């Protein structure tokens, strides 16, 4: 597959000296669904706006299909955007909104062709019946669809989606995630989405670009990011992780033991942590759902067993979340236990008591301390 | 320059060219010319370019001009006070007592509509109400309260204050109304909830939050009244002439443009000072409600 | 109906009194325009249309009215044509000096009209520009520019800039975007401020007073008539002006309503 968009050393520095985007390199393949993921202020939206042409990079080059488009204005780029608040023209009907890009600038199509394209775009999102309504008369989900139809009617090379589902309620958002993904598969157009919602990114994307402080923290498939985070930051951001600080007490072929002042946890060394030596400060990252309860005095060879004091308990429906303290420094440890039977809660350790837990060493990752 | 910057600046010049030229030519330069002329010397019947402070000295030392300036200040202040005394309750009533938005908007329109009705006519009508043979006198005689038409009503400072207050009340109501409108009713409920009665709630919550509107309205009213010359010439008597009438005379019968320009410059500076002070105090007392 | 507190009743009294103060004079003006007695005193004499007949036969008055309409129309067009781009630049560009520019444009609104009038008069005299309707039009459009600028600026500050980005994103250049997206968004502010400019220009005296040559505008005509003595004819003109103003207000209010 060929590269459609290439960012080379792109930076955006605002007049106050604030580096919104700090020298990123990124290639996007034709037909991919790529998501820029990160907390607010990480530079993901600025990156998207530079691709759309609303912001000018301070440094670096952006090219589309091998052509430099760094300096071309938004109205000359074959790229369209679905805006966060949809930005539907309130004074135009749904039909005129969708037809807007077809009757404008260089792309002035004939009446018949416009009608045909609008019809197919509205049909695609299932809103043919609303063509004569004003945006103000539509529900949130319908507006979102109109915004999609309006952008897609222009048949862009790349579709940019700026937090497209953030204004919708949870149920509708999940439904739209599936619809968007299907639409992407049908059309074969390259999608580039920005979101701060890691679940949404995991569900929808072919590849995810995690951003942090204007830089790219990691690029990879959802599975890569979840199972092989490159840093403690990514581990924490993708799915919740416990990050526990301690010292390396033992090393053995790709695994390390981290001493948390009393409790010792065993985990796999991350690629970036190969250089760790015994005695170095390290962070061990452990997902709450990977921890199991150990009852009685049983102990399994493959599991690393440790003790923690249960402080509090929250009912989450499918799971029960325990807030626990581990080690001599009483670090916070969240544990999610599967509630596989209704009676399970009764067998939980009482609050305030020390209980035994275990996890597989392969499920925990050890990073060097200074990586955060 | 990158192509993008070129687009940015060509857009700037294209859009801004005409307004900038127009404003400089017809706004900045005329004020500058007026300032220049205020330093000229009068050689009857002409004026010659010069640079001397004689005109300004005359304005501030000749009791005639000083007196008229002080009188104008007094009248303008009285007008502001009366307009505030009538305008604030009106705005308060519209926002907090009237319950339906429809009625409120209608009444607000009713208050604002006189602004659209000729300013000259609104001054003139007081001439026919207060005049010797006018409505008030004939009404009082008709009802037997007085038996001789009284000349006390018209051509004095009271008549002027009445007329100017009448003309400028809407300017007072508008900013106060806007300020009161922005106060969330919940704040007043919160004050009541915390045990404060209507009077103290007004003093401790509503008044501080509408202070910006009061300052803006008072400033506007004061400045407009300060420079008016039409109402005084219609309803003001010999002791009712304001500074603007004096300016008017310099450009008419007295034919002393340099002095008139100097007086006008003084008015300009005075008004600018007042506006600046009021903007400062408005900003100082500004409380962000969002 | 709930019981009113004493202070609410007092407030009601003040409000009622103020309303009477605001409207009684207008009632007086209208009533006496239909009163046959040339002296405006009570009790009223007979009902008559004579004063209206006289007004409509008054050549000088009609000429002045025509002049006023010309002045107000031209000044309104100029304020819009100059004011809207000025507001756009002030809203869009972050440059030192633009704040000063905005303050300068808004200055004549808070300055007494006489100052602007005299500044203009001095300026015209120095340049040798003859006084007359042209001079008045320039004076009015400069003095009233701030109305359009402030109204349009207020609207622009609430305008969603994403809509313009969306338009450019869909392929429309800056000019096309302005006419297709921005202009519809600020149209009601432009119409409203244009109507206000028209009314204020039609009614203007302080600037006009100093710039008028041989041609009188309607307010100047009335003003000079008043100095000679009062006649019920003025009341008839006044009533007609009030009527016209009301029509304008209703028009502007309904026009502003259908947008928002």
TrEMBL record, chain C:
Organism superkingdom: Bacteria
Q: Mind listing the GO biological process terms from this record?
A: transmembrane transport
One Gene Ontology term, aspect cellular component: plasma membrane
The UniProt record lists the keyword Transmembrane helix: yes
Span-the-membrane segments of this chain are 12-34, 69-93, 105-124, 130-153, 234-256
Keywords in alphabetical order, please.
Answer: Cell membrane, Membrane, Transmembrane, Transmembrane helix, Transport
In this record, what's one Pfam family?
Answer: BPD_transp_1
Q: Tell me the InterPro entries matching this sequence.
A: Bact_Polyamine_Transport, MetI-like, MetI-like_sf
Q: Where in the cell is it found?
A: Cell membrane
Annotated membrane topology is: Multi-pass membrane protein
The residues covered by the ABC transmembrane type-1 domain are 65-252
Family according to the record: Belongs to the binding-protein-dependent transport system permease family. CysTW subfamily.
Q: What is this protein called?
A: Spermidine/putrescine transport system permease protein
Q: Which taxonomic lineage is given here? A: Bacteria, Pseudomonadati, Pseudomonadota, Alphaproteobacteria, Rhodospirillales
């Amino acid at each position: 597959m060929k590269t459609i968009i290439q960012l080379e050393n792109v930076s955006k520095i605002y007049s106050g000296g604030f580096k919104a985007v700090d020298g990123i390199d990124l290639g996007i393949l034709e037909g991919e669904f790529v998501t820029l993921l990160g907390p607010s202020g990480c530079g993901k939206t600025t990156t998207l706006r530079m691709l759309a042409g609303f912001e000018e990079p301070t440094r670096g080059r952006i090219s589309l299909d091998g052509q430099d488009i760094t300096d071309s204005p938004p109205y000359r780029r074959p790229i369209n955007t679905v805006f966060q608040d949809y930005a539907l023209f309130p004074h135009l009907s749904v039909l005129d909104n969708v037809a807007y890009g077809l009757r404008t600038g260089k792309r002035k199509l004939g009446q018949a062709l416009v009608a045909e394209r609008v019809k197919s775009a509205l049909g695609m999102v299932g809103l043919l019946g609303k063509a004569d309504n004003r945006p103000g008369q539509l529900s949130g989900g319908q507006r979102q669809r109109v915004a999609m139809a309006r952008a897609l009617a222009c048949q862009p090379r790349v579709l940019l989606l700026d937090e497209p589902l953030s204004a919708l309620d949870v149920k509708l958002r999940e439904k739209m995630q599936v619809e968007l993904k299907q639409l992407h598969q049908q059309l074969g157009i390259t999608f580039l989405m920005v979101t701060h919602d890691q679940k949404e990114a995991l569900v929808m994307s072919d590849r995810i670009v995690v951003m942090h402080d204007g830089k790219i923290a990691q690029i990879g498939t959802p599975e890569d990011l979840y199972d092989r985070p490159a840093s403690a930051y990514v581990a924490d951001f993708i799915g919740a992780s416990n990050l526990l600080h301690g010292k390396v007490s033992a090393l053995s072929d790709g695994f390390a033991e981290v001493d948390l002042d009393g409790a010792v946890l065993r985990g796999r060394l991350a690629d970036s942590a190969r250089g760790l030596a015994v005695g170095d400060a390290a962070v061990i990252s452990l997902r709450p759902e990977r921890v199991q309860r150990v009852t009685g005095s049983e102990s399994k060879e493959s599991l690393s067993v440790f003790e923690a004091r249960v402080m509090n308990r929250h009912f989450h429906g499918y799971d029960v979340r325990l807030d626990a303290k581990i080690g001599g420094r009483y670090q916070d440890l969240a544990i999610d236990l599967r509630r596989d039977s209704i009676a399970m809660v009764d067998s939980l350790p009482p609050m305030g008591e020390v209980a035994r837990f275990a996890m597989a060493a392969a499920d925990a990752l050890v990073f060097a301390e200074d990586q955060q | 320059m990158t192509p993008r910057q070129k687009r940015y600046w060509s857009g700037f010049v294209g859009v801004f060219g005409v307004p900038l030229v127009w404003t400089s030519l017809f706004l900045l330069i005329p004020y500058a010319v007026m300032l220049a002329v205020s330093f000229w010397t009068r050689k009857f019947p002409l004026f010659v370019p010069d640079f001397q402070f004689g005109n300004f000295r005359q304005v501030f030392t000749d009791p005639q001009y000083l007196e008229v300036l002080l009188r104008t200040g007094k009248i303008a202040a009285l007008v502001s006070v009366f307009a505030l005394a009538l305008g604030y309750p009106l705005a308060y009533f519209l926002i907090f007592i009237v319950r339906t938005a429809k009625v409120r908007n209608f009444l607000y329109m009713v208050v604002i509509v006189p602004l659209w009705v000729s300013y000259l006519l609104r001054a003139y009508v007081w001439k026919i109400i207060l005049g010797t043979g006018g409505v008030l006198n004939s009404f009082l005689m008709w009802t037997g309260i007085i038996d001789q038409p009284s000349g006390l009503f018209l051509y004095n400072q009271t008549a002027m204050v009445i007329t100017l207050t009448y003309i400028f009340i809407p300017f007072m109501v508008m900013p106060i109304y806007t300020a009161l409108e922005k106060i969330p009713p919940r704040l007043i409920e919160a004050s009541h909830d915390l045990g404060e009665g209507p009077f103290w709630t007004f003093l401790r919550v509503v008044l501080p939050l509408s202070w910006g509107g009061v300052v803006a309205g008072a400033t506007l009213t004061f400045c407009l009244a300060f420079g008016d010359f039409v109402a005084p010439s219609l309803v003001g008597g010999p002791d009712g002439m304001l500074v603007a009438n004096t300016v008017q005379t310099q450009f008419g019968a007295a034919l002393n443009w340099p002095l008139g320009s100097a007086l006008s410059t003084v008015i300009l500076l005075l008004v600018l000072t007042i506006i600046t002070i009021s903007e400062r105090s408005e900003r100082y007392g500004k409380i962000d409600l969002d | 109906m709930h019981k009113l507190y004493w202070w609410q009743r007092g407030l009601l009294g003040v409000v009622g009194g103020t309303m009477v103060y605001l409207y009684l004079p207008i009632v007086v003006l209208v009533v006496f325009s239909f009163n046959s007695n040339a002296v405006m005193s009570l009790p009223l004499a007979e009902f008559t249309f004579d004063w209206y007949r006289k007004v409509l036969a008054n050549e000088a008055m009609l000429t002045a009215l025509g002049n006023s309409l010309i002045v107000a129309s031209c000044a309104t067009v100029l304020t819009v044509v100059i004011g809207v781009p000025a507001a756009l630049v002030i809203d869009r560009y972050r440059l030192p000096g633009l704040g000063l520019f905005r303050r300068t444009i808004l200055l004549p609104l808070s300055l007494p009209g006489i100052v602007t009038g005299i500044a203009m008069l001095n300026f015209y005299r120095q340049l040798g520009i003859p006084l007359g309707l042209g001079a008045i039009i320039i004076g009015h459009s400069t003095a009233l520019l701030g109305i359009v600028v402030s109204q349009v600026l207020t609207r622009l500050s609430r305008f969603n800039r994403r809509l313009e980005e969306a338009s450019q994103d869909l392929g429309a250049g800056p000019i096309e975007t302005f006419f297709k997206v921005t202009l519809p968004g600020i149209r009601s502010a432009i119409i409203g401020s244009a109507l206000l400019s028209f009314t204020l220009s039609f009614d203007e005296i302080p600037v006009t007073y100093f710039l008028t040559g041989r041609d009188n505008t309607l307010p100047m005509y009335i003003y000079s008539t008043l100095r000679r003595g009062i006649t019920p004819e003025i009341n008839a003109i006044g009533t007609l002006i009030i009527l016209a103003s009301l029509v304008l207000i209703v028009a502007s209010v309904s026009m502003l309503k259908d947008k928002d």
